[in-house]
Amino acid sequence: MPSIIVDKRKRQRTVASDSIPKKKRTTSAKSTESAHGPEPTPTIIIQLEQQISSSTEHYNNLVYLIGYLDRDDSQVALLAATSLFRTFARMLAAGLLSRPKSSSAVPAQETVTLWLRDRYKDFKNKLILLLNNENPENALTSLTILVRLVKEESIHLAPTKGEYYFAKALCKRIQHALLNQSDDELLLEFVEKYVNKYDDLRYYFLHFSGLLANDAQTDLTGISKTRFTANLLSALYTIDNFPKEEADIDEFWVEVPEKSKQPVTKLSAQRAAFQDSWLAALRLPLTIDQYKYVLQIMHNKIVPHMSKPQALMDFLTDSCDTGGSTSLLALNALFSLMQKYNLDYPNFYKKLYALLDRNLMHVKYRSRFFRMLDLFLSSTHLPALLVASFIKRLSRLAISGPPSAIVIVIPFIYNLLKRHNSCNVLLQRTDQISKESSDDPFIANESDPMKSKALDSSLWELATLQSHYHPNVATLAKIMSEPFHKPAYNLEDFMDHTYNTMLDAEFTKNIRNPPAIEYELPKTIFESGNKGEQTYLEGWELC
Amino acid sequence: MGKSQLKQLKERLKTNGFTGQTNDKRKQQKRAQVATRADKDQLLQSIRDEFNPFEIKTTRQKHGDILGRKVQGAVGKPGLSKQIGEENRRKTLKKELERKHKVGAVIDRRFGETDPTMALEDKMLERFTRERQARSSRSSALFNLEDDDMYGADTLTHLGHSLSLDQDDFDADVQLSDHDDNSKLKRKTPVTDGTDDESDIESPERKKSKNEVMKEIIAKSKIYKHERQKAKEEDLEAIEKLDGEINSLQSLLFQASGSERPDSAPTEAERDAEYDAHVREMAFDRRAKPSDRTKTEEEVAEENARMLKELEEQRLRRMRGEISDEEEDGTKSRRAPEADDLSDDFVSDDAAEFGFGKGLDELDEESEIASEELESPYTDGLDEDISSNDERPSSNARFSSVPETMSENKSRSTKVEVDTRLAFAYNCPTSYNELQALFAGHNLEDQIVIIKRILTLHHPSLNKENKGKLMKFGPILVEHVLTLCDEPLQLNNDSFDALIQEIHGLAKAYPESMAAAFREQLANVRGRLQAAIVGGSDQPTDYPLSSDMFLFVLIGVIFSTSDHFHLVVTPAMLLMGQHLSQFPVKTVGDLAAASLLVQLFSKYQTLSRRYVPEAVNHINLSILSCIQRKTIPEGFPLPLTLTKLAIDGDNNSISPRNLQLSDIMCDTPVTSLSTPAEVQLALSIIKSDLDTLKSFSSLWKGKDAYKEIFTPSIELLEILEDELHKSPSRATAFGPISVAIKETGDLLRKLVQMQTLDRKPLALQQHKPIPIPTYAPKFEVDYSVDKKSYDPNIQRQEISKLKAQVKKERKGALRELRKDNAFIARERLTEKRKKDKEYHEMLARLERSVASQD
Question: Mutate which of B343, B546, B570, B616 to test chain A, going by most A C-beta atoms within 10 A?
């Protein structure tokens, strides 16, 4: 193949120099003669192509070649596509496809040009249809041809010579076709091969994906919408190599003239396009997994490249309400926005408080949650009422938690108490002893941490955990009744414990001293017929 | 002024009366009165000093003015002190140097001869008094009877020679050595005073030299040795003679006792051996000891009571965690952290301080999140350990070996005629297979008899190896019991208890090996539990087996479950906790297993009354499984998928029964209970859970969070009661346990109310506040530069004083040594030069003489 192409190129140059069609043609008559042309074989295709380049008489061959694109034989279609590409590329270079000026001197030539342009359009339509071809090779070839056509068009079809021009329409069509495909393989190929490499392609890709997403929001429904969303997101994930400085924008698919003020070369424009596309994508209905993934990569992949990260606020507040680990991730992103971009979000702690739900101690993201909670509550300027609510609720949760969770909660509360001295009343209350305060004033189902009256309560739960069945947990809980000498516990040491790690620790202990044996056995272990006997397991029979 | 040094000196001497006219009598007298010789010397010295200002050196202080005080630098005469040092060395070190490598010397031991400080008169006086004293002491010894041989007529002799008189002192081998003792030296020293005659008279009484004494002793010992040898030889001769006569003597004896004895009497050697053996046996015989008198009944009771009390005290100490492994080893010495401790330099891992093992390895955050959703009971996937910790203890021997051994066992029992009669002696089995073979064909009663016989036969007092055998036997028995639980056999309660009894006895005797065995079994259960949790709900698992649950029962029965930390019980409880909170309940059997575990938790904590969150959570869930309402009270974790007990229809005829170990193996899904038997089982399980809840409610009385612990259960029970009350169909469905539900609810409500009444706000930080370490500046009102130390601690002050002294002395000594070395080197050099010079002179002389001859 390569050798052939080289041959053709040589010929192309020689041909392009002299032969320009001058004759007017009755296209309709010719096309009716043989609508489908000769039976396609590789040689014939090449012949047809050569004929076209040799003289304008054979322009009708274009119709045949375009017709071949529909053939089931993939080889034929491929060959036809490549030869068509070569032909049209030559024509574009020769200016045969340029939009005829209104005051054209030669009307016949204008007709030919218009006819050729129609064929060219047919060719593009066919190629775009080919993108959906089951044969990946065909689809890939058509993609390659299309992207190269973008280049050719941008170079040769500029409305005014020498001005920068980009074939936006074609680009948008390609993107539209790719985004609506059933799988994202070709799209990702496109992104990796072209979009990540060329700064202008990326710019236009982002630009159009934003527009397309907005369209999809209104036009698409059901499965096609979810498909579109998934495709768009995976494409956006794949975009890396986003420029950090303006100087990084230096790779162009279509050459940009020096000193031009095109938005492509501007970082701000690139960022705006990036932001628009993401915002549009996030406005689409996302699944929980997509939410999670987006939230997870948000702080290091999305936010830094956005021109106005505050725009993510809506999305984040929405995802806060979804519950579970999604909310946690959303809160994390929100927090980083609050920290770095001075975002104001008054309900943050209320939302956070709501995340301390009944299953928190048992879920997988527990340690991740506590890491973040530690970060969120690290400020010493938080009101004591708020901190007390968090402490009280955590200890409430700890009382039904597994040992591995209790192990996190206790040093966590210790650190909080150490940080907020005014919360020490939760452990040591002398002023109310005389008062009749038998019931817990804490309102467990109050959603606002400022109104839960936790500061009037006591941490009886932690006192109870001092007699936890696991000796180490019990010992750990005893720190609550010892003097608070230690400045802070290193939470990281307590985070990643589970039943399994605890069991591992137990099983690796060596037998140093003989373990204590019960002095006396119970009379019987299982319930037997005779009543009144001391039984170990009441209500259980051996068999 | 302006005079020369010499003139000044002269003038000075004259004014002080050292020169010039001395005939001025009056002046002289006056001067004599004032100036003794010493004063004169002093005066002279001062004059000398005055005229030699270069002798005195002063160190200039850098800061001459300290706090308005003028501080003088040290003043000294280095030249002079150097000279003195040199002289001293010449006197001592040089002497030594000259004496080096020389063996003998004449040492002047006259009193005070070497003491330069003594005046001559003093020396003479002292010598005289000594002389007198010596004489007087001798005269007193004259009448001393004890050393009469010194003065008596008979002098000491050796081999007939007199030791004293006939030898001249200087003829003998008296060496001029340093080692000789004082007496000899004294004798050698020429007596200075006129006591010659007396010393002549005294000479016969002189003490013997050491050399002589030693010789004498050696000679004596030789004589004695010779005599002893001689005596021994004589004895031997006599014995031999007697031995020769023994035959005749013996024949006489035997003729007297009985001649029917065969002639071929055992040879002498045999008899000797026999005799020796007897003697040895007797040596090993236990000596008779006074036996304890039989105790009266009261005494026995008292002793028992005392022992029980002691045991209980020990148990309480263990429960409070006062004896832990670490403490006993003394490896763990935690100092109380102080306020200014940096957290990182104190203990590297805060969690390790509390004995938690290593946590999960830091997972990649993204992967952690990505693999977050799992099919596990809780909303977002349960504990991460399940998915992340793939390696689990490999399936244990029991479960790999049991099926084959069982099949083997069965085949044997069918094919081979098994001898079902009991033997009296059995070998102690060393593996489970051997035990299987031993027990083949015997029922449980017989097996117990066999076990008892094995234990008797292999009592450790019988043989040293028995201990090891029995240590292995215990674990095998445990395995046997567990296997029994899985077999669908009709087990007799009494004999089963008896079997446990044997295991208990072995555990008491060999706690270590038993604990190891139980830990192994636990590890095995753990492996399968994890497989079951990870495998999710689809895969059929071999967990929980009846034996798994019975293992926990066995641990509860055999080990002391109230200990703060226990090598077997703690992991067992953790495992039970993991089961309760992570194992998804699918079948009625699972429900029964969980119910058993919950009850076991209450049994484990009977004495120590510790709080078990997992147990309450499980009971709450099992109550919840009877409830249809969607609103669920807060306060306990909720799995993602709630299992609802499908109990309906009229069940009033059914009454809850006792649960059985085999119920655990029931594999009917909870959601499709069809037969009345299954419904009955489900209801019985719920009832059992309620009973356990009741026992917890009494167990945890006095816990601060009593209300918080039980409120969810109360609310759930209320909802259930309400539902039963409102819908008659459900009332009939839960008819058999509606009373129990109501009772439990009422009891809990009452108890919670009571417990909340005496709840007080916490006062955990009652101890005195942590003092902030203060470092107040030290300020002395009457500060003095001269005072070396203001340390209030006298002891420390003394120590620092001593230290300073040592330092000073050390420096001084080092300086002296250095000077000594320099001196020695110098001396050697001069010596060498001198020698060289002599040599060269000699050579020159020789040359000259040769030249002159030529």
Answer: B570
